[in-house]
Amino acid sequence: MLVLSRKPLEAVIVGGHDGIERLLKVTVLEVKHGSVRLGFEAPDDVPIQRSEIWERIQSDGLPDKPSEDLDAPIVW
């Protein structure tokens, strides 16, 4: 596991080196009250899920309905 420290508005890029297309950009949006808000930028064909949703998809084949929490949208 790679562990990095980032401050708000700093980002990490996945891919984009030696001919590999940039796959993902993760930006720290906010850190408060022991919680971190992250922003994810990826091509439309790259799925992004929270780990518990990914595990459910792997075991069941389909995600549950989206959360009602509008402050934390789910990207299928």
Task: Describe what this molecule looks like in 3D.
The chain has 76 residues and is α+β, with helices and mostly antiparallel strands. It has a domain at 11-60. 13% of the residues lie in helices and 30% in strands. It is built from one helix and three strands, in the order βββα. It has a three-stranded antiparallel beta sheet, with no helix packed on it. The longest helix has 10 residues, at 51-60. The chain is globular and about 35 Å long.
Q: Which tags fit this structure?
A:
alpha+beta; 76 residues; 1 helix; 3-stranded antiparallel beta sheet
Biggest sheet strand line-up: 1-2-3
Mean pLDDT: 83
- Estimate percent helicity: 10-25%
Q: Sheet with the most strands?
A: 3 strands, antiparallel
SSE string, helices as H and strands as E: EEEH
